DNA sequence: AGGCGCTTGTGAAGGCGTGCACAAATCGCG
DNA sequence: CGCGATTTGTGCACGCCTTCACAAGCGCCT
């Protein structure tokens, strides 16, 4: 595989700062911490303890401290973490200071909702282009952005240097759209279409599949039902690692 | 769905069949296997090898075999797995034979798209009710289903025995909606609003947060960029556990 | 200045998940 | 009827992640 020795945090050529290689599990939690921190900042909090931030993010405080320790020592013992400083740190690590350009392919039912979603811009992303294959959709104005034809993807992507693409087309066309995105230089894809995408190894794909989420919930329903029917009527907590039962 | 013999988990009252406790990671992959199997069934395949199914689902074949072995021995050495049988098995385990009733709260931008989504019904779920707090939305007909007022949730949930609720309201109201769902007897929640929900321990919550997905992609963009700027121009593959670079 | 309480950062242990490698089992064919 | 080809099921080792527990560090109060 890819072994790559990065010197850890300290000394680095000044153009490109050091880049710690964080555990995947930590990276997946950083956005949650960031959201909690922004919320805290709005309430005027200057600092926050690991306990407090952990509660706000729905995780164990030890896990939070270990996660943050991977970024470096940005806390003060006896006091806590400086909220503003930590926000900057996490945003830097996540690369959110770049205001990344995103394009969306497939302006149907779902794509329409996504295109109008304000949560993108507020979290460091700019939707700069919408594409569809349907001539009737092309030209349509959504939230101040005109839908363009998929054939223009290549050109537009180059002009706007789009690095992230979102796929919201029917499952059957998802692979060909992914291929087009890759050909246009996109190196990160968020896919809403069910199914497996095949892409070069330097391209990252994340997938969101509602049906999968529901089916996992269904499993737990099934499990709970079969347990309550048994002697001990007590329903034990799920082994689910997600947030749950956060005592507030 | 008739009687099924699970080799494991012996001695059980016959009304409720044995229920193997599967690893969380396995459960999360079963829906993906199921989708791949349905696809195979459509192409007329009678059986499939672990290698073939693994490729279709975008996972390692050893992992797939271990996952399936947790459900019992439903394969035949030298031949493979019986597609139809495996479909039934997985659907049974996931509780999809129950055609579970789902309600959706918050018929806004996103909720509207979800309400019209055909992928629910085709995968074993029935959206039986839509709720909103906005009087202007109440009464609106979406895909043959009338939007009802959130105050009717309690009553409707009891009538339809709804076990799964989907939250698509603004973040600020998500917690109160969750409380209402729980009060109405819902024991599984799929939450699209950013933030942490607090629910009793017998309620399962899964969350879908687009911004988090994009931020994770952004991190990898940042990482890739900082690596290409360094001596070794080669960009290594991500540690991402998701599907990626599946040799077509 | 010194002590005290609080909080971070981390070493160590345990658990979970993954992937390899191979024995066991089954089928088809000569 | 036996043999080889094929594929499952799994024991095992390894690495990642989580969690505990505590020493080290910091600020405040006296
Ligand atoms: N609607 C939902 O709530 C929902 C939920 C989960 C997943 N999904 C998935 O998201 C995807 C989109 O769902 P939808 O309901 O919006 O479907 P849709 O049919 O309403 O929209 C699909 C759009 O993609 C366009 N399109 C088709 N082929 C294209 C191509 N090659 N290039 C560019 N555009 C193309 C179509 O013109 C159409 O506008 C589907 O894969 C669906 O399974 C949808
Ligand atoms: N639109 C998207 O693409 C998108 C993407 C990701 C996440 N989200 C999240 O999904 C949620 C909904 O997004 P949206 O764009 O659909 O917002 P929206 O404002 O368009 O819709 C919200 C709907 O919820 C209803 N509502 C508000 N309070 C309610 C209550 N107490 N009970 C019942 N209904 C209530 C409102 O009347 C409105 O119809 C938000 O939390 C958003 O952050 C949206």
Indicate the proportion of strand residues of chain A.
15-25%
Structural class of chain A: alpha/beta
The overall average pLDDT of chain A, rounded, is: 88
User: Under the CATH scheme, which class of the largest domain in chain A?
Assistant: Alpha Beta
Which regions of chain A have little confidence, pLDDT < 50, spanning 5+ residues? 1-16, 239-248
The multimeric state of the shown protein is: homodimer
Order of helices and strands of chain A: HEHHEEHEHEEEHEHEEH
**Tally of individual helices of chain A:** 8
Strand order of the largest sheet of chain A: 6-7-5-4-8-9-10
Number of domains of chain A: 2
**Share in helix of chain A:** 25-40%
Question: Strand tally of chain A, please?
Answer: 10
Largest interface: A-B, 95 and 95 residues
How large is the radius of gyration of chain A? 22 Å
Cofactors, ions and other ligands in the entry: nicotinamide-adenine-dinucleotide
State the distance separating the first and last CA atoms of chain A. 44 Å
Looking at this structure, what is the CATH superfamily of the largest domain in chain A?
NAD(P)-binding Rossmann-like Domain
User: What is the fold named in CATH at topology level of the largest domain in chain A?
Assistant: Rossmann fold
The CATH architecture assignment of the largest domain in chain A turns out to be 3-Layer(aba) Sandwich
Overall geometry of chain A comes to globular
């Amino acid at each position: 595989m890819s072994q790559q020795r990065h010197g850890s945090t300290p000394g680095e050529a000044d153009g490109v700062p050091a880049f710690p290689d964080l555990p995947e599990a930590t990276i997946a939690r950083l956005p949650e911490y960031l959201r909690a921190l922004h919320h805290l900042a709005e309430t005027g909090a200057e600092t926050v303890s690991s306990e407090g931030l952990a509660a706000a993010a729905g995780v164990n405080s030890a896990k939070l401290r270990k996660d943050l320790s991977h970024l470096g020592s940005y806390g003060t013992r006896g006091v806590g973490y400086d909220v503003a400083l930590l926000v900057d740190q996490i945003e830097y690590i996540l690369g959110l200071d770049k205001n990344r350009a995103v394009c969306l392919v497939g302006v149907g039912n779902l794509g329409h909702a996504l295109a109008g979603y304000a949560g993108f811009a507020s979290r460091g992303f700019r939707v700069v282009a919408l594409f569809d294959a349907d001539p009737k959709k092309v030209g349509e104005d959504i939230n101040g952005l005109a839908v363009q034809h998929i054939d223009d993807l290549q050109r537009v992507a180059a002009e706007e240097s789009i690095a992230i693409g979102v796929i919201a087309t029917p499952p059957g066309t998802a692979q060909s759209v992914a291929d087009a995105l890759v050909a246009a230089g996109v190196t990160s894809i968020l896919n809403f279409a069910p199914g497996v995408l095949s892409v070069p190894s330097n391209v990252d794909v994340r997938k969101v599949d509602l049906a999968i989420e529901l089916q996992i919930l269904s499993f737990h329903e099934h499990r709970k039902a079969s347990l309550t029917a048994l002697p001990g009527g007590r329903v034990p907590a799920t082994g689910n690692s997600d947030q749950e039962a956060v005592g507030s």
